[in-house]
Amino acid sequence: MLEVWTWPTPNGHKVHIALEELEIPYKIVPVNIGKGEQFRPDFLALNPNHRIPAIVDPDGPGGQRLELFESGAILIYLADKTGKLLPDDPIGRYSALQWLMFQMGGVGPMFGQYGHFHNYAPEQVPYAKARYANEVIRLHGVLEKRLAQAEWLAGKEYSIADIATYPWLRFPERRAIDLADYPNVQRWFTAIDSRPAVQRGVEVLSENQRKGTMTPEEREILFGQTQFQKR
Ligand SMILES: N[C@@H](CCC(=O)N[C@@H](CS)C(=O)NCC(=O)O)C(=O)O
Description:
Helices cover 55% and strands 8% of the residues. It is α+β, with helices and mostly antiparallel strands. The longest helix has 31 residues, at 90-120.
């Protein structure tokens, strides 16, 4: 059975949602990133970048075992494996890949840095806080413009581009965003949020979601020297 090495974060949710949408049976292998399990040798062997998610598909291309990390690559693989969630026509396919890359290179990293400097940095850095707050607003504006022209990010079809972006748009109040200011993003978000497969996907491992503030140990593991040791 396909294994997903994962944890309940936006990059993990993307893969859980895609697997639920595609009805692919899967086994969850929890990697508790707050406890440092991403540095375990068995996980590092799968992903030297020590970040979830990663998958192992014993029935990969040509029946061979496939190991894969980077959530965007995993989504493309799952779509290609099943022939679903990526448009068949080349123009639609490249549009979906374009918006997937926009999420991977823009929305994810910028929203992540917003969270870091607003919630976790040990010192106040007004320049960084303003920079990432402005980026979050700018990126919502780009999504609003796109979704005013098209029903879904790729165009006419729901695709892995929507699945990749949706988990990052949850809890907008945490980024001082009111989706009422972005009516087309709101319409798109509600449509995705109400899909049963999406609801099942975000529930995967949800009992492990951190409640309250980070402990000093978690902070060290995620942002301290543990990250930067030579491995
Ligand atoms: N570009 C990577 C990013 C993955 C990523 O940043 N994962 C986070 C959780 S959302 C993680 O594993 N963090 C562990 C750590 O920073 O040590 C992807 O999309 O797969």
